[in-house]
Predict the 3D structure of the following.
Amino acid sequence: MITRTTFAGFGGQGVLVMGYVMSHGALLKGLNVTYFPSYGAEMRGGTANCTVTLSDAKIASPVASQPDTLVAMNGPSLEKFENRVVENGLVVLNASLIEEDLSRKDVTLLTVPTAELAREVGSDRAANMIMIGALSAKTGLLSQEETIKGMRAALKGKDKFFELNEKAIQRGFTFVNNGK
Amino acid sequence: MNEKVLMRGSDIIGEASVRAGCRFYAGYPITPQNELPEYLSARMVEVGGTFIQGESEIASINMLIGASAVGSRVMTSSSSPGIALKQEGISYMAGLELPGVIVNMMRGGPGLGNISPSAADYFQSTRGGGNGDYRTPVLAPAGCQELIEMTFLAFDLADNYRNPVMILGDGLMGQVMEPVVFPDFLDLNKLPQKDWALTGCVDREARAIFSMYLGEKGELCQHNLELQEKYDRITAQEQRWETIMTDDADLIVVAYGTAARIAESAIEEVRGQGLAAGLFRPITLWPFPTAPLRELAQKGRKIAVFELCLGQMVEDVILSVGERVEISFHGVPGGVIPTPAEVAEFLNSVAKGDGKVGRRIEV
Amino acid sequence: MSAEPVYKKVFGRPESLKEAATHYCPGCGHSIAHRLVAECLDELGLREKTIGVPPVGCAVLAYNYFNFDMIEAPHGRALAVATGIKRVQPDKFVLSYQGDGDLAAIGTAETIHAANRGEMISAIFINNAIYGMTGGQMAPTTLLGQNATTAPGGRDPELHGWPIDISRMLALCDGVVYVERCTLSSIKQIRKAKKAIKKSFQCQLDRLGFSLVELLSPCPTNWKLSTQDSWDWVSEEMVKVYPVGVIKDTTGYEDKK
Ligand SMILES: Cc1ncc(C[n+]2csc(CCOP(=O)(O)OP(=O)(O)O)c2C)c(N)n1
Ligand code: SF4
């Protein structure tokens, strides 16, 4: 098993943190992980993205030719990465910011109204945690418990965010499992 | 065994260095390696060592000369333009026979270039831009666990041979995160004794460390011959490399560092399509593992060199196996990170001999 | 027949600035400093004879914003490059524009010696007490106690040394005719800064010697302060360590009050 996920958005959306949470969750589960952030040759305020590769075997390249899953947090990222996703791959969209339609017809689509759901659990700022919850629920790569553990490990020392983030991850899971 | 932790490449070198006994770090900020000095700015204080942000790369490498001369394990780090400034100091360290570790996280050049991963400083690292007939062992790790091994090795080689040693990575190696397990701290008291270090001449004759030989009886010549004898020993004893799936390979891919990781995925891909390719990964770039590569270059095999620059290591490949086998080269200049798919195309093109990707090297 | 309305232009883009949006963060002092330099060049009619040297720092791309000839220099070496330009083309107007890391750390030697040789160059020195471009490492000018990524817990003189006042040091050099420090943190100060820049340019035009204007400049991003708080921090904290005013003036110019 090897699976590659690209997270993309603009700086400040917590895109790198999402990848970081997933990586930690997978590590705790005993999987091999590589996490590769792309740092801005772009100027400040530009786009941010990272690719997380999980495998039960050795991982060669940290750079993916074609991600299995794309998590797009804003329009420009969708545009930039959409065509790289493998056939029959998964695209998860932040519906709160992306109005464009997916031009690919050969992938599975999941749209998540992250901002609305985040507000429901207490703060807009947890939108990325809603997303990681929804992603884990959809792919089954990490259970809810593993995702939460990953978050706690990734944000070690920032305990004050744990409660909100946990709620957001749970909300992401129920959104996918109950369809709302 | 220590616990598995997920850390970024730059931080890993920082942690590995203090565990390997480094107690003096000096450097000057430059992207993409700032996380390493930032990590050490706090960590050195915890382990009772010294962290200094110098006023420049030149000052930093010269601080290493002082700290090394009095016996400490020392390290500096930078990226390409900053390494250019350190070359004078590296030449002096070689001439003074002082151990020290220099980390180079390459970025795109020439000049300011940009901060994307690049491997355009193979020449800068293996040939050196400093003056004189000197050599610097260069270690090129390709993964996070190997960053740890290479950091420990770099300090040992530096002490054993009393020579500067470089760890060569690129922006990607510095940023990538992988789970690693750290070895325990080395016991500083058990490190090799430095009977040449300046410690104050209590009950012994005064020592001097210098690189200038003015004598007219060939003293400088003698010094250089002795250095050369040391470089010969390093060449004989310290070559390191890895081979993956080369036994049955018709096509040998030569790549190091990040490029080797990308190439390895490409090899898995083309193997799935029926092309028997394998990887030869030099771990020491100097000394270059010439003999083992030559052994692989048997009749009927082809060699494909892949670099994150427009062709530097390929010259060492040509020196190693030139004329024996067909060599092709594909390089990507700094600023873009190629995917395994792109490298797979190159390998298929070489196998078919259609010349569509990369170029055939005329020897 | 109705009369054509008569419009008088009261505000516009100086010709010395290109029509380009800068990449500077909101609240950054670089944008203001650019505008002041451009206005002074326009007012003195210097644009077409100016050759500028930007730093390696956040203003490395200044050639995308300034509308006159410019050449990149390696980090810290702007005043050496500027020296070469001025000596070969003494009739050109030559200026360097540099941050604190560039001018007062890696480039200290080039700075001091260009000043001491009395090169007919105007240096604009942006002191934001931090390394902006590389992401918030300690600068030579970082205040004691100020946080930086390589001075965790704040600058401690025992570990990191003291903040450097390079302008005062340069004032000791005989080749230097004029040094003034201003801030970019209030309208009044910004007006003063413009006057200082213009005076420095005049020194060069009159071939008096080397001059430098230091501008205490907010970096909200790396100080991790809001725009307003970062302006206040300049006016309240930075000026304690770097008092504003004329540091050296042997020009003999009479300031119009
Ligand atoms: C030889 C060399 N060393 C280091 C760097 C990395 N570097 C780029 S800008 C900079 C310092 C920026 O700080 P400052 O001069 O204060 O300007 P600011 O960005 O704050 O405006 C450094 C260290 C470089 N480009 N070249
Ligand atoms: S990082 Fe600081 S100096 Fe650089 S553009 Fe932003 S505010 Fe200005």
